[in-house]
Amino acid sequence: MVRSNLVSVSVGYPNLFSIKLTNTQSVDTPSPFQQMLQLPVSQLQSYSPILASDFHNIRFVYNGTAIPAWLESISNGVATIWVKLPVSIPANSSITIDMEVDPSLNFDGVYWGENPLLSSTYAQYDNGASVFPYYQRWGSLSSLPSDWSSVSGTVLTFEDTYTEISSGPNDQWYGIYLNPLPQSFLAPTTWALYGNLYSVKYAIGVQAGTATGYNNNGGYVIDDTSSSGLPPPEIYFYNPPNFIATGYTDSNNNKLYSMQLNSPTSVQIFVNYSQIYSNDSATSQNVSYFIIMTTNSSNYGPSGPAYIYWLRTTAYPPNGVMPTVEVIP
């Protein structure tokens, strides 16, 4: 996804911010639409001192009615927020939403929520399911969620804030898969998984055929691997018959892996919203599964565990370009 960095702030009444969203493309946004906002914390606080540093005391409003929003992170002085717009932004046009700031407000897990890792009690205010077309958090589970299955022999460990996926003893692929595949995973779309896939070989993405037939069936897959079979791995794009190096070396920490399917033949891969790969001539695939796979290799032994925290989809922005954001307090 192409992000907009246009955020301008002017002086105004400190308890109400108007946010102008401008669709610069010749195509309308879908309705509903997940709009990403990246807001400068200190700059907004300078105009509204009652704005909490964790942004807990706000609500987003459209035409006088609260709309769902989810705080993803506050990092390097920027709050990344996703707002579910109930209407389309017409081509080459703008709409305005409001951000109300009130010291009496707090997260409520309905209209204003946050990443499940941000609250002192895990997922206390997580309303991701109300914001995104598909959303699954992976902490505090006792079994796989509905419509998810595991390859026989896969070792699953359900922790307080994540799920760990490990290989079994045989020389084969292991992992978990989602089937039937929700419509929101099909192109055009964007899916994103937050976790740590740093190890010998992993694959995440949408694929065709059977869930256990990774090597023999088509798909659009982010593959985390290394030619030596040892970390550090490089991220590859697997799109049969092609297996393409992106040039990006992964690191051993949590991050957001995402893929934007602009069309069945156009793909972009991002890590923490930075594009690492683009392909406009991919081989079209008829996908039916979302997979999170690992392997036990006769050459290199089992992969280390995959750690997954949450998975989501968002509506595809017009021509892959997110509307610009202008904040006017």
Question: Helix and strand layout, with pairings?
Answer:
Elements: E1 16-23, E2 33-40, H1 41-47, E3 58-62, E4 65-66, E5 69-75, E6 78-85, E7 93-101, E8 112-114, H2 128-131, E9 135-137, E10 148-150, E11 155-158, E12 163-166, E13 172-178, E14 189-196, E15 201-207, E16 219-225, E17 234-239, E18 242-249, E19 255-263, E20 266-271, E21 274-279, E22 289-297, E23 301-302, E24 306-314, E25 324-328
Find the structural class using helix and strand composition.
Answer: mainly beta
SSE topology string:
EEHEEEEEEHEEEEEEEEEEEEEEEEE
Largest sheet, if any?
8 strands, antiparallel
**Gyration radius, in Å:** 20 Å
User: Number of DSSP helices?
Assistant: 2
Mean pLDDT: 90
Secondary structure: helix percent: under 10%
Low-confidence stretches: 2-14
Number of strands: 25
How would the global form be characterised? globular
Beta-strand percentage range: over 45%
The CA-CA distance between the termini, in Å, is 27 Å
